[in-house]
Specification:
9-stranded mixed sheet; about 45% helix; globular; alpha/beta; Ferritin; 18 helices
Length: about 475
Amino acid sequence: MFEQTFKNIDDNLWKDAGCSSELDYVEQTSWVLFLKYLDDFEETRKQDYELDGKKYTPILKPEFKWASWAAPKTKDGKLDHHTALTGDDLIDFVNLKLFPYLKGFKQSATSPDTIEYKIGEIFSELKNKITSGYNLRGVIELVDELRFRTHKEKHELSHLYEDKIKNMGNAGRNGGEYYTPRPLIKTIVKVVAPKIGDKIYDGAVGSAGFLVEAYEYLNQGKLSTNDIKTLQKKTFYGKEKKSLAYIIGIMNMILHGIEAPNIIHTNTLGENVSDIQDKDRVDVVLANPPFGGKERPEVQQNFPIKTGETASLFLQHFIKMLKAGGKAGIIIKNTFLSNTDNASVSLREELLKSCNLHTVLDLPGGTFIGAGVKTVVLFFDKGAPTRKIWYYQLNLDRNLGKTNPLNEKDLADFVKLQKTKAESENSWTFDLKEINKNTFDISPKNPNKKAEADLREPEEIIAEMNYLDGESSKILKSIMELV
């Protein structure tokens, strides 16, 4: 039922002149969904207070409640068409009254870790793009059918929302920045194995997939009241530069059960790493920083190793953010392991000397749909130098693509062998005593597998060509700017 509702919502948005892409559909669905979620959240909270004999003070004023403007009901529980706003009246109410009121919560909230503050944040970043009050009325009536009361309902809705994010990722290169395949994230979380009480951080949070999966991993079995409070308030932290990703990340975490996500809307790379203090440091970093981006010289000044490559700057930030003994699982472009430019060589040396890079997972092309780049996952602990690196090369008997995505079964052998760092046809250990001290090249060279011809799907080759064309254009543009 929920799935059909989501399809019908998209149909309504498709008809609207203000919504032109999958990205708009997700953004506009998000704010309506959030207000319905808030209505159910308030109702549940009110019942809990009454059971404890306490008086509940509602978050929203009566005229801004869902039941007042979005879905007023008759005595028999049906929509009251006489009082429900529609057409221009609905658009005017939303744009001129509702959004300004909700935006004001940012100033009036008692602290940033409250749902009130998050309401203010969300509606400071968003604007209503739906231009027809009749289309908006259609969306509201569909969302009104959804329920967020039980764990089962929330679970199903959160999965559907994840699917929407995935579709957005598949809609274009920009959307792809928001979506990391969930089987890969689950595997990274399993290997890093965070504990309750750890501070878990993603400085390139996107749609918050890593934080959501870490929450799912930790939110198992019978937890004490203290553990639940720790998970809600003191565990998950993130930063995101882009407005849409920031909103989607917050919504995704809320739908998965984290009431007031600790996500800040900021450019992580705008912070000078030398300003990071002990109180800022975290126990776990889980991230897939954007690769292929180019940062301006003033941003590069925030880092000891100057480079325009976004992912290399993020890696420096993550190393600095980890406490001694802290653990990380980070996805990065595989060329980082062998690039010969000074910045890459220096960064590899720094990583190997300040951290124990114990595991490298080498992923096949096509892991990231639509991106023609190969990636690796770096697993490291901070505080002791690297002595040996265990590599696992994911060699599948099929080509990955839109109709054949990566799944958890593909990664099961890696998870099993990683526990003991066992050797196999796809895994081996490299001793750092053998490293070239001039290049610090740590690219995977599997001694146990014969080289095979690179038989790739045409779509994968075209995606890589498009990616390389884009990279060339960026380089040419930056050269032209210097001339």
